[in-house]
Amino acid sequence: MTITSDRPDLSTTAQQYAEQGFVLVKGLLSKEEAAYYRQRSHDLLARLNRPDDPTWAAAREMTDAPTKLQHLHDAQFYDAEFAKLLVDPRFTDVAAAVMGVDNVQLHHTKLFVKPPENGSPFPLHQDYPFFPHTYHRVGAAIFHFDDAPVEKGCVRVIPGSHKSGPREHEAEGSYHLLEPAFEEATPQPAEAGDVLFFTYFTVHGSGVNVSDEARTTWLIQYRDPSDPPAVKTHDWSLGQGMMLRGVDPTGRSAV
Fold it and tell me: Is the overall model pTM greater than 0.85, yes or no?
């Protein structure tokens, strides 16, 4: 499902999110903004020049040829421009609406660049097993800083998959699902400036970037501050617990 911004109808957006488990908001950022953040993303990764490749071991089974991936946790702690996006009402109002709450809290962020010709895929999975919460009011927003057609390895989803709740994952090689088959997932090609919102129960993944251009995205995982973690895990992210919209009614410190 897609919704066109500027300022999408939040009621319609929330309804589609509830029915399908995801919604693609078109043009949440302008093309100029997306290009600006794309350049800052690549400049930041070049400046840090880190050699690590976060490609999942399970992802290596999806292709015969070696693939690569660049990433960075907590970009907002390296460049203040990313911090501005975290509290941008265009984003936080949608995040609040799809969760059906007033308050939005940061869980973590990750910057991803899939290099051209061999950008790593992600097997189908839910985000739930990585950081389960008590009431499951946890979601993700993927900001597209450049175009992401199918050949760039765009995100794929299984519509309605969130309704079945947690699924049994294969843990080896990072949490991933053995079923359904990757080909059963629906591609969500996006343009620069589009943002894909989905629940942490929504089954999703992405393909190999076989194009001649990089695919650049920024992932923001957010939650309702009234939804405590079910287990103590993934609590090392910088800024976890930061309020992006509203207040934390629990009064607790970041966990």
Answer: yes
